[in-house]
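Input sequence (371 aa), recorded before submission:
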Amino acid sequence: MDDAQEPVPAAKPVVDEEEIEAAVRVLRSGRVVQGPEVSAFEEEFSALVGGRHCVAVNSGTSALQLTLMALGIGPGDEVIVPSFSFAASANAVRLTGADVVFADIEPHTFCLDPAAVEAAVTPRTAAVLPVHLYGHPAAMDRITAVAERHGLAVVEDACQAHAAALHGTPVGAFGVAGAFSFYPTKNMHSLEGGMVATADAEIARTLRLLRNQGMEQRYAHEIIGANVRMTDVCAAVGRVQLARLPGWTERRIANAAHLTAHITAPNVVTPGTAEGARHVYHQYTVRVRGDRDAATARLTEAGIGNAVYYPTPIHRLKPYWEPDQKAGRTWDLPETERAAAEVVSLPVHPALSRRDLDRVVTAVNTLGELL
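Predicted structure, token format:
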């Protein structure tokens, strides 16, 4: 790498003066937990998910877990989950006491395959949890059709897909509920936090109880709950970020289009977009057909940030692999295994300049010599 060139980061979380001022304003107010900022953030985020009820919590993982709990999912139930995702997608199921059933993905979107979901349904199946991976919506039209045939709840993991949509419907507005994450590297953040969107007012109320020790009124506990509230500081930061999300999303889409138009390395496959899908590119993920380790080393040497999400499918992680081995349970997930062996994510975030994008393209295109 040229010493005069700064590396192009794989991600660049934004915390500007506006976020700082919002946080300071809340700290000075003295209302720092579950106050007016949280309520305002929930109301404003609702516009992103078709006007659904929104309930803010402390993380995307909590959003998933509390949603499953609100649906009464627990021991004896099965939930169908893709293995090609971050572990939280399956962890949230396990934390309720339910069993995870892994299903394969579609190769062109990296999202749950509706046919694999259909094949995985058993009498114990209570729900399916599609993940809108890398910012691409899962095939929700076909997945919800499978779920309706079998009487299953659909809980969307939209933690990587703020403002993504399929045939005009935003993610988080297809299933009984959708969960979002506001971790710093997401398309928008709140320092840390999560949100559940649901059309069901009773589920929304149960979620509010679950996040706050089972009570709406102080000391009037109605159910067993936890403490997974969002702070007003986080909500204030989230409100600033939410206002910026439309512009950032368009930048991500434009950056991805530039990369796709100019990457020509023969053994690098650029990401596709399903018909009717709005891909918001939380990650710009290519497939490397060849020596991926050599390719990522070459990119790093050229100063191009990159990462592999996810090198080990969830079903091969120790907390899942060992119990399945003891039970004699195996999973046939060829597309999941193939994706885990090939994927590399490249910079696509809105802070990239045209010069940054061209540097990414140049570095990727030199991989043709290596592969």
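Checked by second reader. The chain has a mean pLDDT of 97.
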